[in-house]
Amino acid sequence: MLDFSVYPNGDSALDIRFNSKPSENLSRHIIGLKEYLLNKNPNNFIELIPAYQCLTLIFNPALFDSEMLSQKVQQSIQDFLKAHKNISRKSRTIRIPVCYESIFAPDISILSKHTGLSRKEIIKLHTAPSYLVHMLGFTPGFLYLGGLNPRLECPRKKNPRVRIPAGAVGIGGSQTGVYPQATPGGWQIIGQTPIQLFHPYSSHPFLADPLDIIKFYSINQAEFDDIHQSRIWN
Amino acid sequence: MSIYFIRPGLQTSIQDFGRPGLMHCGIPQGGAADILSMQLVNLLLGNCLNNPVLELTLTGPVIKFECDISIAIAGAQFNVLLNKITVENYKVIQVKRGDILEFGQLLSGTRAYIGLSATIFTSQSFNSVSTHLISHFGGNKGKAISYEERLHLKNIRIAKSAHINRNLQPCYQSRPLLRVIYGPEKKRFTELALSNFFRKTFQVSAQNNRMGIRLSPSIIVDSKAITDSSDEMISSGLYPGSIQIPNNGEPIISFIEGQTIGGYPRIAHIIRADLHRLGQLKAQDKINFQLVHQAQAREILLKKMKYLENLKNNLAPENNESFIL
């Protein structure tokens, strides 16, 4: 049985924290628990935010007493953990093209220096894994991915950039990911994808869901331009 | 049927309750920064409480009305003129086609809300016309209103006259005391860091927007560590009112368009009943934090809700919606 604790997080939320390391198995439990709680009491929570080792439940404190809700939630988690040993959701594999050429990779030389790997080796190691989407968060459609090769780990920038373009692919510590929007950011940028990760006006606004698999593949600048241009017809 | 912006003001946007329920996709709730003022203008006009309003920040617009309509203004106190004659906040104002509304000097607060006895016809995403200014979606294609822009209106009617008595209007102090309860990482902070947090008067930095409110000074003294523990923080859910302490010790309050997951230790959390007051903070304002317990936080909230319920029964007894704080 997974070890967990429930803590108040402000007067409007509870954090359910699990004491295991981030893993696919734990993410499956957290996503499964989120869906279980949502189905059981659809009106109790305004938001259910899964993270690597934590599920945050936001409620309206005018309707619930935090202490009482916490007890109810603890009981529900026990029930869930007993009843749902195998949480299965079919994962999709989504391929994301990335252009690692210098024009899109302002920090690839920093990464090269830090890791001792050549540009070619960096691309090879970055495109090899099947990354697991643990959760979405931070900004709309941002994917938190697990599975970066430890040889590619590199600290974040001391001074974050004020603006990095939408689609920028970066490495920050032991994480890698794609910025869906042009935002400030502190990761080392090693490439850019021409595809859009977030479509705010579409019926399918997000490229991927938690527990999906992401694979990056390398494209050249001409292919980048082709894909980027074809976006206007979508 | 429309309103025309001769000048847009510094940042005028369309807002409603926002988009609750999407934080697991990284989409913050957004919506009006001062949700209380937003609901009060709608209450005055006999609208449903979630009717889209205009939120203006620090410098107000100059608007020409191209139809007869009723409006109400609440929140920050500006010197507001309709055809050069001063008008009051918290009161239904009857406007004629061709009238010009001007916002002059800001007297208190930061954000004012203009309610309209009509629906704003604009772009929508995720069931809300709230303009998400940081990621550019929602009302007005996700952008603040610009010069010579026209907003189209539908369902226009004329509202009955109504006002909220002065003693019942919210007022915005220049040095608010914001009530908080301890955050989940309280135990990570040294006693000194915690006592600094409650002892110090913080100043709102120029870096404050709908995403977050940065404060200074630092709660670290003599470069002592702020946390006792050195183990890795678990990135977890943030929501409006979460107060994180990054390595430099200067608190950051998450706000309505804030990131949904964060990794800095959360020292405390603004209580829900005080969240709407964050929408009236501006650079240089001074704030203090006061610790309350969970039970007190709830009592304060229920008391405010009850007050709003009474106000609603007086102004619009036929409206059976609940206020949201």
- Choose one word for the global shape of chain A: elongated
Chains forming the largest contact:
A-B, 44 and 45 residues
- If you average the pLDDT of chain B, what whole number results? 93
C-alpha Rg of chain B, in Å?
Answer: 20 Å
Name the overall outline of chain B.
Answer: globular
Oligomer: heterodimer
SS strand fraction of chain B? 25-35%
Content of β-strand of chain A: 25-35%
E-strand count of chain A: 13
Number of helices of chain B: 4
| Helix content range of chain A | 25-40%
Helix/strand/pairing class of chain A, anyone? alpha+beta
* Separation, N- and C-terminal Cα atoms of chain A: 47 Å
From the N-terminal CA to the C-terminal CA of chain B, the straight-line distance is 32 Å
Please give the largest β-sheet of chain B: 10 strands, antiparallel
Helix-strand string of chain A: EEHEEHEHHEEEEEEEEH
Question: Spans of chain B of 5+ residues with little confidence (pLDDT < 50)?
Answer: none
In N-to-C order, the SSE pattern of chain B is EEHEEEEEEEEEHEEEEEEEHEH
**Radius of gyration over C-alpha positions of chain A, nearest whole angstrom:** 20 Å
Helix content of chain B: 10-25%
Short overview:
The complex is a heterodimer of chains A (234) and B (325). Chain A has 234 residues and is of the alpha+beta class.
